[in-house]
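Re: the 156-residue chain
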Amino acid sequence: MRSDDDLSGISLLGASGVKYPVQYAPELLETFKNKHPENEYLVTFMCPEFTSLCPKTGQPDFAKIIINYIPREDMVESKSLKLYLFSFRNHGDFHEDCVNIIMKDLVALMNPRYLEVIGLFTPRGGISIYPFANYADSEHQDMARQRMLAAFRNNF
């Protein structure tokens, strides 16, 4: 069981009256310590209702965002991640930008062994866009290349 010290940096989980952000807000992201840093294991988050805005037209874009990572010492707390992803709702950027921003923010937050972000955006104008961005430490470079090549082959 986690102690109060283990949970000291978690302020959003269990808090009542949490306000949803209206602008992009990476400062919402919170971490907790990985109790099993000696193990390599995968954590997956799926956000099936991600929204952002087209930077040119202001029209909404919808996507399923999938985040996979192999943690090191720090792990992202899920409610803070939910609020962070919600903060893109009024953010105007292209699909590729959103996926890369999410990846970079999470890498800066956690310093994971490996992390990937996949955006499965719904079609607009008859075209679907599925950006994939990944990061790997020096020990996981081969994995990063393999996952990138798999993304090309699978087309999700």
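Residues 95-110 form the longest helix (16 residues).
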